[in-house]
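Notebook, student rotation project (T.W.).
Task set for the rotation: take a protein with a known small-molecule partner, predict the structure of the complex, and write up what can be learned from the model alone. Partner molecule chosen: PPS. Sequence and SMILES entered below by T.W., checked by me.
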Amino acid sequence: MTIEEPSQDSDILIPPYTPQEIEAINVQLEGKSPQEILTWAVDNLDGLYQTTAFGLTGLAALDMISKISQERGVTHLVPLIFLDTLHHFPETISLAEIASETYLAPLHIYKPLSVDTPEEFATKYGSNLWETDEAAYDYLVKVEPASRAYKEIGVRAVITGRRRSQGGERSLMKAIEVDERGLIKVNPLGGWNFKEVKEYVDKENVPYNPLLDKGYRSIGDIHSTALPDPSLASDEAERSGRWKGKSKTECGLHVNYFDMKEKFGKGQIA
Ligand SMILES: Nc1ncnc2c1ncn2[C@@H]1O[C@H](COP(=O)(O)OS(=O)(=O)O)[C@@H](OP(=O)(O)O)[C@H]1O
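Predicted structure of the complex:
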């Protein structure tokens, strides 16, 4: 079975800063609040978008950006990108609409190429590709759609909802990063833990996924999301319900793009 690829423009972006300048910016932003990091991003980065699956962290960032926008007397400053994998919970899909309407934030939704429904996806790639070839699944539902979005709408920088307290590869993350293709990634709430994010969301009445009130913490696709492990402390538990029983900890969005593209970009899957 062949993975369809759109026509390719260059994947490479020229970052507006040298590695030394990025290091200096990170020193400058160390210990700053999420709002200060977001203000820096809004003031300094062209082609800035927020990439979000409407997790609690992204929602807090969305609320903060809205407040920064209001202070400046403008409607929402940073458009959103949501990668609709076709396998999200209905609650997540509703929340995407609610959040974008509440904050008047333009929402760009990207789906797997030439596929509109889970049924069409199953017909084209099999009924459980996430089991038979999970890396190919990640490429089709997140990596390729994200790269298509970046090219089509001129994305040069993205705000993400990752945090150091989520552990794994995220634990050493800086406020500002440049990925392998030259895309700037801003992690404004990188220094907060789950409790701090939840307190912000409650205090500011930010809309959030009702599945959180059923005990879920990190919410992705239906087939790879379970309740977190109750024996773990809050921060360790947060992502323990994702890909339960597997060694996997990332969905492909935050791993090396060129490795994924080389493996799946033009090829066949099993
Ligand atoms: N589907 C989709 N669409 C757009 N952006 C997405 C998507 N999945 C992950 N992300 C971005 O990654 C942030 C962390 O997500 P997760 O902790 O859920 O992990 S994972 O990326 O799914 O592995 C996540 O943070 P939130 O904004 O809090 O959702 C986003 O910045």
